[in-house]
Amino acid sequence: MEHSPVRKLLTEAGQRQVEARIKAAEAGTSGEIVVMVVEESSRYRHASVVGALFSSMIVAVAVGHFQGGDGMWHFLGVFVPLFIVFHELLVRFAPLRRLFARKGDMADAVGKASLAAFYAKGINGTEAATGVLIYISLFEHMVRVVADKGINEKVDPDAWPELVGGIVQGIRSGEAAAALSEAIDRCGELLSRHFPIREGDRNELSNQIRY
């Protein structure tokens, strides 16, 4: 856990706060709330290649201009090593790679990864199909809410964008724990209206933040 994505987002106290709020929210509903934090939803290899091509081409042209080099072989002699170096930098350092990742590609990757996580983590396996995933992808600066079919049949889908917006804003302002806690409270309120706590209800999914 020490080097997990959760630690990039929350302090240990913040993590305990969020997990306590999940427990409190679920005390009033038969629904299950899961929070998951990931480093990134895709490796964006295309962005690494495009970024390396763009960067090495600009530098190679500039070097050729100042050195007075002429011809394709001189250009390639500078361009190829630069491409290798820039590509390695982009692969290894996410903030640099993000400069060349298209927003549409990131949104698509987060959508697919959050849905895959919903099934991979068994959130779709609750007794009444009342699991909901709050998925946070750090590289893309994006949040998605994935709700099971039981919730989608009763909760207005327009309720989720407001919840997502609050989390994103809180993370940007350095108040991730507070924003997540507020979102979990809101999620608990929405679920309790349609899925109140039942006699003999049990905690089907762990309250621990996933990563």
From TrEMBL:
<protein>
    <recommendedName>
        <fullName>TPM domain-containing protein</fullName>
    </recommendedName>
</protein>
<feature type="domain" description="TPM">
    <location>
        <begin position="116"/>
        <end position="188"/>
    </location>
</feature>
<keyword id="KW-0812">Transmembrane</keyword>
<dbReference type="InterPro" id="IPR007621">
    <property type="entry name" value="TPM_dom"/>
</dbReference>
<feature type="transmembrane region" description="Helical">
    <location>
        <begin position="72"/>
        <end position="93"/>
    </location>
</feature>
<dbReference type="Pfam" id="PF04536">
    <property type="entry name" value="TPM_phosphatase"/>
</dbReference>
<keyword id="KW-1133">Transmembrane helix</keyword>
<keyword id="KW-0472">Membrane</keyword>
<feature type="transmembrane region" description="Helical">
    <location>
        <begin position="46"/>
        <end position="66"/>
    </location>
</feature>
